[in-house]
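Hi F.,

I've been meaning to write this up properly since the lab meeting, where we talked about keeping a consistent format for the predictions we share between groups. The idea is simple: the sequence comes first, exactly as it goes in, then the structure tokens exactly as they come out, then a line or two of notes. No screenshots and no reformatting. I'm using this chain as the first example so we have something concrete to point to.
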Amino acid sequence: MISRRNSLQIFGLLISILLTGVGVYGILLQFRTGTTVGDELVRQILLLGEGVFAIIGSLFLMLFFRNTPSPGVLFFILAVQATAFGALRPLSAALFSLNYSYQIPAAITRAFYFGRFLSILALFISGLFAAGLALQRRAIMFGSAFFIALILAAVLPVDISEYTPQLLFSIGARSSMLLGYGAIAVLSTANYLIAALHQGNRNYYLVACGVLFMIIGKELVYRSVAPGIAGIGLLCMIAGAYLFGSRTHTIYLWL
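Output, unedited:
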């Protein structure tokens, strides 16, 4: 019988596959119509790496921790899976360059930020459990993160008159969003530092480094305007997931 925890992970994996497939369609559409070529096409192909990372990374963690019912691991996996929303950007670029209706690229902009919010909130919650949050509250925490991300994406002001190099429409309240996002990112890392001090296990310092690498990598891929930067961002994300997985596994071996 599949547990609720596993059902959530499998559902997230299926969504990641679907989003990546949509991104691949966007690349093929541009390749067929010749609307994007050269370094820009390479960059967009690298953006699909977010979807590939979400699929392969979460699948590896799901198998690696299949016998570890840790809510901290669960929320880290959900954070990895939420990065797949970034794979939608090539489709946004294809539709915008082909002068399609603005409505679909605008919806993709909201979907991207939903995934961005959900991913950072999941990382934050993952750290809360490591720092000692009561285990029975994970369903409430996931529901809260999901609806907060959904509401933020729904009310986000989208300016359809300005299309950015990030292959998304410009958004309003950027300073406030950046401040709030940055604060949650700092707290997401700090939670594992608190866990290291509270539990006296130095492996949590490396786990904190893994979370930090994930955040930095996501930012590099998000803001990249060149293939090299996007590639470095993907490598940071992979390194972060590896550090988290390997060090967390070591922690549970000693419990």
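Notes:
The chain has a mean pLDDT of 89.
Residues 4-33 form the longest helix (30 residues).

If this format works for you, I'll send the rest the same way.

G.
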